[in-house]
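Course exercise 7: structure representation. Students receive a sequence record and must write out the corresponding structure in token form. The form below is the worked example handed out in class, using C-type lysozyme inhibitor domain-containing protein (117 residues). Read each field label carefully; the graders check that inputs and outputs are placed in the correct fields and that the protein name is recorded exactly as given.

STUDENT ID: A-19
EXERCISE PROTEIN: C-type lysozyme inhibitor domain-containing protein
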Amino acid sequence: MTNDPRPGTANLKIRVALLVALSGATGMLASTAYTRDASRVVGYACPGGERFSVEYLRDHIRLRTGAGIFALAVQPAGSGEKYSDGHTVFRLQGSEARLERPGLATSADCRAQDQRL
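STUDENT ANSWER:
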């Protein structure tokens, strides 16, 4: 018999420690899964001063602008690359990028500024 006035305290401490360890491991796995498919991230700058980045993934891109983050799917294009979510359109023709968004002026002649693997 122990002198602890609260039976099961050791059991509770073990359960809490296991829960903390499991939570940490789950968070690490989730962050790894989130970035595993990323092939590259490219920052773009446009003549009008706008900047945005594009994370090229296997079957879509993740566009980051001052307005938020948008997932755009691959779309058929006559030439070059085209991605859209039905509203926002990102086009890449050679080294020139173009960003079209409803209610905003088109950002054309945008050029890659950096590339991270």
